[in-house]
Amino acid sequence: MRILLVEPVARKAQETTWHMEKAGFTVDHVNTGHDALGMLKAYNYDLAVMDMRLPDVDGYEVIRISRAARVPTPVMVLSEERAATAKVKAFSIGADDYVTRPYESMELTARMQAVIRRSKGYSEPTLRAGELELSLDSREVTVHGQNVHLTGKEYMILELLLLRKGMVLTKDAFLNHLYGGMDEPEMKIIDVFICKLRKKLQAAGAGQLISTVWGQGYVLRDEGVQTAMPQPQQSTMHATVL
Fold first, then answer.
1. pLDDT confidence band for 47 (50 / 70 / 90)
2. Residue 4: beta bridge partners?
3. Distance CA 209, CA 69 (A)
4. Maximum CA pair distance of the chain?
5. Of 19, 13, 33, 2, which Cα lies nearest the Cα of 116?
6. How far is residue 238's CA from residue 102's CA, in Å, rounded to a whole number?
7. Residue ranges of the OmpR/PhoB-type domain (predicted)?
8. How many helices (H) and strands (E) does the chain have?
9. pTM attached to this predicted model
């Protein structure tokens, strides 16, 4: 899952990024409100984690402007300010959660995962399709209760397919999800990743969950789910290593 961290203090940004990446998140970092607005409007993040004290515009204004622009990205405030008035103000303008510093890293990442799940319409940390289960918390994939070992990029592809189950995703959407515009390989690499992922799932007994929609992309289908045609999608900016 992809996170935008908005934090002007380098030491705090480095520490928070470390905790997030350890929990399996991919993190982009900016240190100003204007940069945050630009990234939120340009890319489709799973969550923005934001300090309120920014050097140009404050975090409240960033949230207000992004909500006025109908940016759907959920926002978690991460701040030293403990006053109830600050929390009420943040929630009233569109924040989805409010965490105060100092924080416990396990609580922070658990609350991040909870906000993301709610924003995707899931109330629990496990995504399912048939006998396939993916845990957003542990990043484990099982079929019939048996672990399926995936590479980092195979997991990211499967996670995206499950979060958007029934929706056709273009190869360009996968490419941006995996590489975020940085050192992107040729688009055919997506076919390679999908092929390897399919083989692992089929070998585990998951069946033909991932289907090809010729000329459009790929979709993960589950029984009773109607496939949605692809919609214009914003890119997501990140780089991940296999």
1. very high
2. 28, 48
3. 36
4. 55
5. 2
6. 27
7. 124-222
8. 8, 11
9. 0.63
